[in-house]
Design goal:
18% strand, Rossmann fold, alpha/beta
């Protein structure tokens, strides 16, 4: 199993597809494990190489004591890409992962495009009461209840048994969840978006109760090469519940930039 090392922390990642193709690296949301990318991973593998990695505190990666920071997680991502020998990568980030991708594009040189799902330019759009509802001990009932703000009412009522099982296996522990959400809340590049000239698509559900769609609109407007795609009545986990529509937008965006290079 491949691990990259960054500042004494081992970061787990795995890849699928041919390294002869462009690499699409998935950067996860706070608390959630690699299961969240199952739908997108399957869609991009083939025309692209997919790379999925576990944030510090999540899955098979080390879980050092907090605090964590978005800058630190961006360093983890760079260590992963360097370990795998990736010169340029299309970054697909959700929530906290989108913030990591934004910081990465600003500070590092390997970002080819950005796909930002349910993401904001700063952490102030996440209300403390919503954060507290998302945090959960790793028990089936707690993990199910903590999905309520992130999914539609219909999905929540359906039980989400598979998702809960995946969360039990792969999600961050409660202390690591707290450290990841603290990193999200401390993040702010709202006054520096003009510096991020990487082509970007901002995907946002109009019924996102974690990061409101207005924050996504502001993010797309602030990025010099940003485009906004909204999904009607879709929740925060839009890439899970509306995976086909999100995948269509993602693949169309990637196809437009597959041959574009930056020196």
């Amino acid at each position: 199993m491949p691990f990259a090392e960054h500042d004494g922390t081992s970061i787990y990642y795995e890849t699928d597809g041919s390294s002869k193709h462009d690499t699409v690296a998935f950067v996860g949301d706070a608390a959630y494990g690699a299961w969240q990318w199952g739908w997108q991973h399957a869609a991009v593998t083939g025309p692209f190489e997919s790379l999925v990695w576990d944030h510090r505190g999540t899955g098979k990666s080390d879980a050092p004591d907090g605090p964590y920071s978005v800058a630190e997680m961006a360093g983890d991502l760079d260590a992963v890409l360097a370990d795998h020998g990736v010169r340029k990568a299309h970054l697909v980030g959700a929530g906290l992962g989108g913030m990591v991708a934004l910081h990465y594009a600003k500070q590092f040189s390997r970002a080819k495009t950005l796909t930002l799902i349910g993401t904001a330019a700063d952490g102030s759009s996440l209300a403390p009461d919503v954060r507290d509802r998302l945090l959960a001990e790793k028990t089936p009932d707690a993990l199910h209840e903590s999905l309520r703000p992130a999914v539609s009412e219909e999905a929540f009522a359906a039980g989400l048994e598979d998702v809960v099982e995946w969360r039990l296996a792969d999600d961050a522990s409660l202390p690591a969840q707290r450290a990841q959400f603290a990193a999200l809340e401390a993040f702010d590049v709202s006054d520096e978006l003009y510096e991020i000239t990487t082509p970007a698509i901002v995907c946002h559900g109009t019924d996102d109760r974690v990061i409101p769609v207005e924050a996504g609109k502001e993010l797309a407007d602030g990025l010099p090469r940003g485009e906004l795609v909204t999904f009607e009545d879709a929740p925060h986990l839009v890439h899970v519940e509306h995976s086909k529509a999100v995948n269509d937008a993602l693949l169309d965006f990637l196809a437009r930039h597959v041959d574009e290079t930056f020196d």
